[in-house]
Amino acid sequence: MGKQPVKLKAVVYALSPFQQKIMTGLWKDLPGKIHHKVSENWISTILLLAPVIGTYSYAQHYQEQEKLGHRF
Q1: 22 contacts: CB under 8 Å, gap ≥ 6
Q2: What is the pLDDT of residues 17-48, one digit of tens each?
Q3: What pLDDT is attached to residue 10?
């Protein structure tokens, strides 16, 4: 009742560096895809970016006022 070695066959998948047809589907109609994504999700983009940009601009303004505050 000893352990018997089991032969395993490994399959290795690789892409040929000479075959460039793999990525063509990503770049086909790229401007159309980008326009479609932006037009569908513009409200989500605004709701995400508005607080980020607002916080960043507030921090920049506060830091500038702090730098100028010691002058007077």
Answers
A1: 15
A2: 777 676 777 788 889 998 998 899 999 989 99
A3: 84
Q: Is 7 left (phi over 0), alpha (psi -120 to 50) or beta?
A: beta
Structure-derived torsion over alpha carbons of residues 31, 27, 41, 59, reported in degrees to the nearest 10: -90
Integer Cα distance of 8 and 57 in angstroms: 60
Torsion angle of the four alpha carbons 52, 53, 57, 62, in this order, in degrees rounded to the nearest 10: -10
Question: Is the pLDDT confidence value at 53 over 70?
Answer: yes
Distance separating alpha carbons of residues 21 and 43, to the nearest angstrom: 36
Q: Which two tokens stand for residue 3?
A: 């352990």
**Identity (one letter) of the amino acid at 14?**
A
